[in-house]
TrEMBL record:
Specifically catalyzes the dephosphorylation of 2-phosphoglycolate. Is involved in the dissimilation of the intracellular 2-phosphoglycolate formed during the DNA repair of 3'-phosphoglycolate ends, a major class of DNA lesions induced by oxidative stress. The lineage of its organism: Bacteria, Pseudomonadati, Pseudomonadota, Alphaproteobacteria, Rhodobacterales. It comes from Paracoccus tibetensis. It comes from the Bacteria. Its EC number is 3.1.3.18. This is Phosphoglycolate phosphatase. It holds the Pfam family HAD_2.
Amino acid sequence: MSVPCPIVFDLDGTLIDSAPDIHACVNTVLRENAVTPLPLDRVRSFVGGGVELLWSRIIAARGLDPADRPVLIAAFMARYHDATALTRLYPGAAEALAALADLGHPMGICTNKPLAATRNVLAHFGLTGFFGAVIGGDSLPQKKPHPAPLHATFAALGAEDAAAAGLFVGDSEFDAGCAAAASVPFLLFTGGYRHTPVEQMAHEASFSDFSQLVRLVLEMRPRVPAG
């Protein structure tokens, strides 16, 4: 007897393009502090490691005082926790989630995005019901690429002992490193925020269009042992 394997997804750069909202919130804070705004591509290049790393990179890019980081982060979070107006789902992502749910795959989210912002954006796009577990960047002391958040997501899905038989879907170096550290097969979405060429990133398979995802899941790891 076997059951469909658990699948965990990253969020920013994988299911959603949230960089425009992050960019808008960042530049609002910079303008309020009389600092020259940053272009979208620069802010996008800073996304993936969580809010603290985002602002460390912004501070370095604009030569700001690192001691001001807590105040800047607080001002940013006041806007960011419910920023969804400029965020978009990647084409076909919702349909792929629905198809995987129909096949019986338990699904979770493992992201470095703060948990409140994660839950807000999932609700905004009507995706909450797909996910039996959601781990955010502030859910644990560790963030990706540390394996703890991914292990915790599988455990919350009831698959603590079967994590290696599940799949992790993400877009970035943080995700690839996390999957490798957790010994979980990694599916790379190539349309996200990575900086490294695809061929230089460790992954089991890659896809550029969500219409390809269900087929990849079925080909790679369609079922895992039950009990």
